[in-house]
Specification:
The structure is a homotetramer. The first copy, chain A, is an alpha/beta fold. Chain A has 6 helices and 17 strands. Chain A has a 9-stranded mixed beta sheet with strand order 14-15-16-13-9-12-11-10-17. In chain A, strands 2-3-4-1-5-8-7-6 form an 8-stranded mixed beta sheet, covered by helices on one side.
């Protein structure tokens, strides 16, 4: 067990960059069913209905789509300090930044592939207006009655040149546990599924097929049932959201998935299900390319674009529709 | 088999009366997720997303809640004429009325308990605007992305003083088949579940515990899955809609139910599931009060208000909350 | 409207031929969760738990897989006679046969493609043993607690050389309504979805890519929810049943599907959902090859074997795995 | 935060006592769908299909029903030692026992109410026979195709005279976090929902209405979807298992529940859903009796027997059916 384990609690939020800010906002608000919490500069902050925090998405206008940054909350102020010290020792730290809408000071760094990350402790809790309180007071807000009505951010999948290097860093410095991985025929690691909790995955690294760095594969938001994932697919169909990969069950994590492209070009997942890891001695499951070739859990072939498309798009690589 | 069988196709729409037209409209539009099609006089017409017709609900301002009328579509012009002739022979006809928004001429009559009904053939089909067409052209409109997102009207439940008389009329004059019934210890019929199709129920008569006539028990709209019924319950909870009877499975019809009161006071159901009757010789299932006393399918006791509350409310009877 | 409409009620049963009778029996009993009702000669009769009849499957040992026959029940004795008269006029009749386990006399004929069919009226109802009665007396038997626990036969899909000829016969002689169809670029009909009820499909004809006649595409059994279809997929995975086409939603019929091969080689579907046709003037939806090319409802590409594999296999055509 | 946090991983198993060992075995095997792993003396060991361990249930013949003991697995050998030291300091320890089928040495103690508990580290992993391996190698065994097909033990609910004392001990000595509680009008704690993970509850203490000690309220096994809970209800209905509390959604934990009595008299739950606690500073939700009076999440009244029935039954208290 690594000494880092237990210092981080969960992904706090992501910042997504979009060249089509108005269309992206309409997607997350009207189709995903998230609530707009605040606007600041070129950014809009949104939340799923079951998040205790201010927001899980900062949507920022930019020239190209991609991940602005992702932030992870520590389990305590002291744990944050320990984590920061380990990151600094790894030589990857950029230093502290004053907070942002929804949270206090954050320590900014880059993972070995160049993804910008932040660690933070102080957060602002969401407090509904008096007339908008949920009936069940053990939930933070009223359920969304709009679109896919996603509940909360679930996981982030990052493309990386050196998957093994990134996941080792995430384990050693940040305390992520490795639950599953793909090992290529040359013994290189091409995918790693990591978690801070009993949930089957919270942070994923997969091989970037291009020479690019710091790219995003997808961000996933959670709904409570597979039926809601399928209802989301019906909504996406009718409101012009391109479905990349139709609802089915993953082999790895056994999560139920649905992948679409938001108008800015970022891949977004609606997810539910998946297994839990209760075993403290859990050995990571290792998959071979041959095993992966049989497709997802029920045999559905993985769509081709899943293997090369990320944001920002890489010049020369095919776009999401497979056209170079 | 009655000679009337096959002359009617399905419930076309209901007119609900409401003393709180604005609140009722907001309920059906924002919480039930129906679309406003047209306004005329003191009425608003709404539709579920999977209805081929113009509308399934005419919501009309009135002093008290209740059923304005319900309309049933014939299977052909000739079948309509046959049906009208039988109703006239029964001495219950009021005569033809010019159509209304969404349909052509209708023959108006009252069932033996005084519920106003219409029979019609000519209907207006819903045609979505060019920019609002569904992706699957075998469905009439885009799915709703709002609230409970109900698909279509499913069934109507009417209170009656003489259940047996009403259901016999519905069978003989209108061609409804009887699938289930409740017979009291004194051999009187206190409930009758009728259908024009293989669906387990489309028209229901249950005993009115008061001396009133022509009252409504509830109108039900359909969603495709039980999970959507439960999601509707979560939405109702948080948006101030009183739940009378929480989601569970009926013994009769085996439908999955959820009963609420719309702001005007009418009981509304969100429903899914239920069995199909393929057997042309199907014998109605008869239930005794003793059998009914074991509650709904999984043993949930039926809420008390279910037995006495209807609209318009009867002076002197308890209201929906059981207060006299 | 055809004069035949209303004379037939529903598919009564199918006879499936299998070269591996023991393995096929174990599949339908232990994995599909059907109950063995009776054995006679080289045949075993099985039923889904929600069928009012004796059985929906006659499983018969044979040299090659395929459809022995399918039987359809009339709505009355008189309707049966009318139907038989129309079939005789069409010159396709083989004549009456004495009944079989579970039903009385049946009129045997072949559709224009040579599929053996029977029409019948007299059937034996399933009566559970005293100790095995269901708690809800409006269902014919206790639910199955085994495997996929299918409820009842839902539809049959037949391969045909002349789809238009077959579906015209089914409409004119048998009273099937046409709800959807595929028309090729040369205006030939390559698929037709037919029904006797409001259910979106009960009998399907699709183009046989080989010169063979009388072949079976698949037989479908129903479960009440999409979740049960997905649970069936998990069961199939772990008990050695090859999944051909993983759970997803069809464009045509909008049914939720899962296709597998039973050990004898016949394609079997577990299905749920789909839309209902209440409109008596419903116009069939016509699909073009271009529209079909976008895959199933959520964009999943149709598996290749779906287009050529049927039973009995055609010499020279690829087998289910695509190997020629 | 308590220094104990992180030392325990999860409930390893429970031992249930039953005066009807054969009937109880048939219930857990044929209706719940668990697999028999081993028999020893008067006990049978069973497991849900998704458990990495040897078993989660030891079913032991006894004069009266109740909890034999429950066992919790530590996160490491060192963590076990720390936990044992804290329990010994609390003066509640009974000492080490040699292991049992499926696990190594265990430290036995009693919680303040007298429930027998064990702490252990060394466990035996379940290894399927070569011919019985699951297709997805990140799951421990093939899915069950029998009955309710439960996946794994989820939580245990214990009756206690001093809820506050017990949950304080569980927090201080064992490291359980408190997520929700009920506080009576006299400020006494009458219910406490505790967890070792992000799952909303794993160990619950509720007020025993009788003067008894060490009684069991219920043990819950998990299925992955609410639909499976409802399917379990259908199975229970038809196979003679008395349903105490039909499927619905809890207010506390927001879990979907279904409570039945196994033949020996112990209350058993089939559960799914519930929320996750990601916030490291999560403040427990406190409920008042007035708030509890509105019933479960969707308003369903809690059944009376839930408040007084436990095992072993208390002489003089009503039995499960409310008869004194």
């Amino acid at each position: 067990m690594t000494g880092a384990r237990g210092d981080l609690a969960h992904i706090a939020h992501v910042e997504l960059l979009t060249p089509k800010p108005q269309e992206s906002l309409e997607f997350f608000r009207d189709v995903m069913g998230m609530a707009v919490v605040e606007r600041a500069g070129q950014s809009v902050f949104l939340r799923g209905s079951n998040e205790y925090q201010h927001s899980s998405l900062k949507l920022t206008e930019a020239r190209a789509p991609g991940l602005g940054h992702m932030a992870v909350r520590a389990t305590s102020a002291a744990a944050l300090d320990r984590c920061v010290a380990r990151v600094e020792r790894a030589g990857l730290g950029d230093g502290w930044v004053d907070g942002d809408a929804g949270h206090g000071p954050a320590y900014r760094f880059q993972d070995p592939d160049g993804h910008v990350m932040e660690l933070l402790w102080e957060v602002e809790r969401f407090v509904p207006e008096p007339g908008e309180r949920p009936l069940l007071k053990n939930q933070p807000a009223r359920v969304s009655r709009q679109g896919a009505a996603v509940k909360r951010i679930d996981h982030v999948n990052l493309l990386a040149r050196d998957v093994h290097g990134c996941r080792t860093f995430a384990g050693d410095a940040l305390g992520y546990r490795l639950y599953e991985r793909i090992v290529a025929d040359d013994d290189s690691e091409t995918g790693a599924w990591l978690s801070l909790s009993i949930a089957a995955h919270e942070l994923i690294y997969v091989q970037d097929a291009t020479p690019a760095h710091g790219r995003l594969h997808h961000v996933a938001w959670w709904v409570d049932t597979r039926e809601e994932v399928m209802r989301a697919a019906d909504v996406f169909l009718d409101y012009g959201v391109p479905i990349e990969f139709a609802p089915s069950k993953h082999t790895i994590s056994q999560g139920f998935f649905l992948y679409v492209f938001e108008p800015g070009g970022n891949r977004v997942e609606v997810t539910s299900g998946g297994y839990f890891v209760y075993d403290p001695e859990h050995e990571p499951t290792t998959w071979t390319p041959a095993e992966r070739a049989r497709g997802q859990a029920w045999g559905v072939p993985t769509v081709e674009s899943f293997h090369y498309y990320g944001t920002p798009p890489y010049e020369g690589a095919p776009d999401a529709s497979g056209r170079a």
